[in-house]
């Protein structure tokens, strides 16, 4: 305040503006859904310590017996528990992932998918072995295949079920280790660069997915700001994230020349993430509090979350961590670790799965990449306190829960439509379950149940009866009860819930047992196996036209479906009498002609004109008159239509109007079907644009259909705040004027008139006309002075987030570069020559605040102590390179510190100092091979590893790894030395690994080495 008058001075006015801008920027624009994920790796191996499969790509069609709705239905189980995301690990890009994403999309779930470790560390051409951690080319090839095989739709957009893409899981523990931030940062930024170019070449458009790199929860002694004191010691995970930010903003600092604007990608579509087994209280006090000070805009999520310690009540802890996320502007949510017990790993690793497997019931034995494996039923597991884990997750996630008693009995929605399935359901003695089975049977006979109560009444007569399935089916076909709607235009399609291998087998059989030549399937219906089977199955049915259970079931590979209701298989390749869906081919046209109804023929021809000729009909009645005597073939009809005046848009014809009111005939049974939406409805795509807060769904990359609503909310909120602020300002100004007037009056009464009164009046009048709050604020400079000591908390940048103009100015500064013609070095390694054209200044770093960019040898001079300015002083000439760190062997960089470890392999350890659990998951407890290579590496989660000064990895002494300096090159890491180091880990921390050494990979498929397995090359 200025004096006693109540007026706001210029600094106060600026801070008021800054507060208003920050308030508007951080206001929630829409209630966004937290990530409530489940980590998914349904390994079917029951033998402890034995790996029975060759791939761990559980998104592939071969894994459908686990997640498919016709089988065990793992995705449906997750949905019932309240999950909205599923996190996956293995990823063989040669496999199709479209079916899995389609299934998730139907359930309104998102997939958090990960890139395989194979191109990073396991392939003979891995970037660690051959290109000095430059992973651009390896990951570009892999991601291009991913886009082709399901990540991208036919229109070039990302699949709506794709949420985040994990560039690499726990790179700080495998490229090659936590003491080498230069290497794993270079690997990540180069990989993202390759993924961006893969997107460009594939023509990806529309809303883009977010990338993330999931770190361990270990402390990085060699990372930026490792010397920082966060609540008694360095905070776990933060050093890795700061290192990666510096590499994104200045890739050349890690020896990589980027092809894309990686800084822009980091600010617009990157999410930080980490894995942890620490409880909610630890996350809030030891990580999130400091993260929100260091990262003002980039969100964070937990890729694996589960604290299995005896003192942790799972439901309370899960609710607590979600509550913390809901109150944070950056914390997106969690993925619970994990869905299924991993018997193949054994030991304490089995404590994390919420479901076990039981031989009590099986959904069948299937071929999984050459291995015969069963799909066994699920059994809920209990935690250390006896609480059912699925119940705890459902309570925290808000799910409806499960009926555990039905998990290991025949499901009427999944059993075969045959005598065996009928008997299995009848034996359960439940009217409701028999009604579910009968509903499926009605649907397969071309009906659609209208009255559920009548269906239950009909079904109860067969519970426990001696009736046969064929008798029941015959009764339904003959009577066609009135409580169902029966479609005479039903068609036969490939059942999308069936296994693809089964569809292939039945396709071959059908093509060999009908008159139609499958070689004549039109090219547009050869997109994939499903569309080819649609065409063949429907043609086979047309030749038979009776007995759907015999001529359109094929042991579950086909489905006889009504065209009057929604069905997900509308591929445009069905031959049907329904003119709205019949394929636009000669066979489809002839089948519609069999209706002998001109209106239906006209509907088909209108579709043909719009789709194939790309013109339109301006007079439907004229078209209907034409259809009363239609040509015998579609080719003849096309030639005749091109001569008709009611076809617009052709050369020599009238142009088509902008809007057409003649969209079809009056409402009929067929017209009702027209309004039906075929296929799963795509929910809005929400990309977490990391440059915005958790409560701000960004529209910068499309934002989905709700983007305009979010914009409206933002504008309204800004107006409300503005009006309220103006009202407050007006009240303050009014009070200030009153105070000044009273003061002037008091002075006039207290002192007699004299020669100096006029001068005093001028002074008071000048004070009265000083700018009030809200006046001339547009002219206030955005570079301002404030004592550094007044900063309440360390900031990642000098207050640039207070206003967009400041932010833009800050990010516009060029990265740190050495003086002209100087070679950038780090730890004795030549990183690259920087030409003078790339020189510039770096955003200054103030006392207590971390740097945005990595510093090379030498440092910038500190700015004046009382100045916080967006543009800092120019960098000084770089000094001589820092001395190289002490030599450390490859094995030492990977080994855990047994004598410093607390607890042990993932068992709750002793508390230390602050009551946090001891290091229950120290590196080495998960030996390479115990866990499938590529999914997670040793030391992914270590509760309490940050307690006190206990370190987890590498040599303990501070002088062993100088801060911000990478260790010397490790040329032997590409070959046997690394594998030897892994073998040492296996032998010193628990059971031995499974063939880590030099055993070759034995992956199946076109790209050997993908998937799970004991040998390198299966992650």
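^ structure tokens above, recovered residues below v
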């Amino acid at each position: 305040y200025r004096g006693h008058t109540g007026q706001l001075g210029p600094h106060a006015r600026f801070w008021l503006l800054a507060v208003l801008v920050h308030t508007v920027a951080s206001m929630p624009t829409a209630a966004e859904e937290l990530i409530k994920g489940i980590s998914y790796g349904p390994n079917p191996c029951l033998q402890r310590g034995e790996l029975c499969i060759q791939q761990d790509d559980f998104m592939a069609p071969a894994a459908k017996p686990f997640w498919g709705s016709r089988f065990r239905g793992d995705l449906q189980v997750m949905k019932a528990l309240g999950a909205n995301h599923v996190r996956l690990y293995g990823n063989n890009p040669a496999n199709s992932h479209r079916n899995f994403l389609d299934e998730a999309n139907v359930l309104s779930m998102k997939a958090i998918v990960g890139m395989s470790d194979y191109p990073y560390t396991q392939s003979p051409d891995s970037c660690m072995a051959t290109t000095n951690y430059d992973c651009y080319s390896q990951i570009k090839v892999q991601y291009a295949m991913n886009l082709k095989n399901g990540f991208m739709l036919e229109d070039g957009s990302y699949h709506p079920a794709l949420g985040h893409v994990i560039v690499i899981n726990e790179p700080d523990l495998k490229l090659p280790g936590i003491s080498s931030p230069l290497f794993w940062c270079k690997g990540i930024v180069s990989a993202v660069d390759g993924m961006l170019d893969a997107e460009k070449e594939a023509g990806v458009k529309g809303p883009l997915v977010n990338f993330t790199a999931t770190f361990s929860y270990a402390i990085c002694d060699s990372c930026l700001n490792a010397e920082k004191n966060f609540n008694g010691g360095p905070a776990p995970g933060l050093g890795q994230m700061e290192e990666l930010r510096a590499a994104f903003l200045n890739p050349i600092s890690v020896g990589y020349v980027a092809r894309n604007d990686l800084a822009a990608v980091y600010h617009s579509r990157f999410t930080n993430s980490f894995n942890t087994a620490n409880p909610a209280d630890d996350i809030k006090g030891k990580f999130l509090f400091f993260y929100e000070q260091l990262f003002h805009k980039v969100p964070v999520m937990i890729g694996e979350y589960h604290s299995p310690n005896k003192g942790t009540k799972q439901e309370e802890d899960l609710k607590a961590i979600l509550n913390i996320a809901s109150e944070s502007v950056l914390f997106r949510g969690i993925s619970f670790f994990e869905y299924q017990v991993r018997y193949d790993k054994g030991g304490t690793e089995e404590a994390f799965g919420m479901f076990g497997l039981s031989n009590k019931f099986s959904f069948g034995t299937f071929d999984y990449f050459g291995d015969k494996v069963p799909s066994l039923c699920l059994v809920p597991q209990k935690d250390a306190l006896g609480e059912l884990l699925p119940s705890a997750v459902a309570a925290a996630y808000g799910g409806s829960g499960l009926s555990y008693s039905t998990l290991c009995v025949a499901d009427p929605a999944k059993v075969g439509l045959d005598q065996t399935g009928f008997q299995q359901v009848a034996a359960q003695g439940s009217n409701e379950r028999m009604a579910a089975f009968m509903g499926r049977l009605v649907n397969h006979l071309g009906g659609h149940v209208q009255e559920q109560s009548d269906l239950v009444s009909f079904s109860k007569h067969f519970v426990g009866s001696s009736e046969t399935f064929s008798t029941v089916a015959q009764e339904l076909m003959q009577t066609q009860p009135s409580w169902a709607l029966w479609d005479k235009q039903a068609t036969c399609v490939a059942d999308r819930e069936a296994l693809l291998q089964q569809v292939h087998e039945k396709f071959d059989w059908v093509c060999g047992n009908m008159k139609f030549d499958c070689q004549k399937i039109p090219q547009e219906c050869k997109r994939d196996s499903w569309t080819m089977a649609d065409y063949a199955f429907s043609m086979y049915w047309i030749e038979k036209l009776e007995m759907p259970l015999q001529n359109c079931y094929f042991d579950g590979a086909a489905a006889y479906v009504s065209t009057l209701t929604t069905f997900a298989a509308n591929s445009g390749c069905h031959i049907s009498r329904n003119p709205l869906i019949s394929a636009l081919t000669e066979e489809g046209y002839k089948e519609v002609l069999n209706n002998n109804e001109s209106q239906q023929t006209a509907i088909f021809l209108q579709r043909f004109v719009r789709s194939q000729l790309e013109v339109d009909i301006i007079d439907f009645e004229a078209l209907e008159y034409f259809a009363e005597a239609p040509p015998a073939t579609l080719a003849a009809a096309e030639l005749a239509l091109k001569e008709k005046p009611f076809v617009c848009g052709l050369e020599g014809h009238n142009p088509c109007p902008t809007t057409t009111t003649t969209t079809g005939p009056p409402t009929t049974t067929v017209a009702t079907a027209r309004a039906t939406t075929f296929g799963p409805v795509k929910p809005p795509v929400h990309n977490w644009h990391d440059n915005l807060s958790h409560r701000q769904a960004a529209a910068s990359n499309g934002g989905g259909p709700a983007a305009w609503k979010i914009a409206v909310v933002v504008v309204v909120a800004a107006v409300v705040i503005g009006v309220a602020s103006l009202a407050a300002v007006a009240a303050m100004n009014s009070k200030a004027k009153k105070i000044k007037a009273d003061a002037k009056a008091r002075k006039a009464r207290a002192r007699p008139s004299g020669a100096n009164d006029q001068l005093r009046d001028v002074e008071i009048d000048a004070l009265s006309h000083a700018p009030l709050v809200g006046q001339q604020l547009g002219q206030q400079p955005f570079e301002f002075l404030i004592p550094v000591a007044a900063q309440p908390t360390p900031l990642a940048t000098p207050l640039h987030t207070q206003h967009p103009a400041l932010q833009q100015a800050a990010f516009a500064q060029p990265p740190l570069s050495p003086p002209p013609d100087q070679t950038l070095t780090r730890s004795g390694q030549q990183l690259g020559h920087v030409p003078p054209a790339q020189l510039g200044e770096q955003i200054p770093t103030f006392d207590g605040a971390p740097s945005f960019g990595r510093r090379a040898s030498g440092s910038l001079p500190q700015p004046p102590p009382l100045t916080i300015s967006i543009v800092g002083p120019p960098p000084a000439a770089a000094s001589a390179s820092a001395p190289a760190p002490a030599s450390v062997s490859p094995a030492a960089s990977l080994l855990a510190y047994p004598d410093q470890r607390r607890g042990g392999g993932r068992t709750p350890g002793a508390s230390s100092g602050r009551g946090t659990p001891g290091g229950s998951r120290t590196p080495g407890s998960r030996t390479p091979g115990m866990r499938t290579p590529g999914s997670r590496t040793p030391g992914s989660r270590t509760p309490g590893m940050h307690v006190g000064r206990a370190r987890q990895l590498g040599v303990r002494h501070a002088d062993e790894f100088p801060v911000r300096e990478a260790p010397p090159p490790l040329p032997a890491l590409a070959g046997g030395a690394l594998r030897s180091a892994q073998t040492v880990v296996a032998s010193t921390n628990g059971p031995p690994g499974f063939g880590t050494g030099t055993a070759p990979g034995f992956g199946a498929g076109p790209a050997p080495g993908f998937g799970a397995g004991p040998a390198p090359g299966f992650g």
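Residues 1-6, 21-31, 660-709, 749-1019 have pLDDT under 50 and may be disordered.
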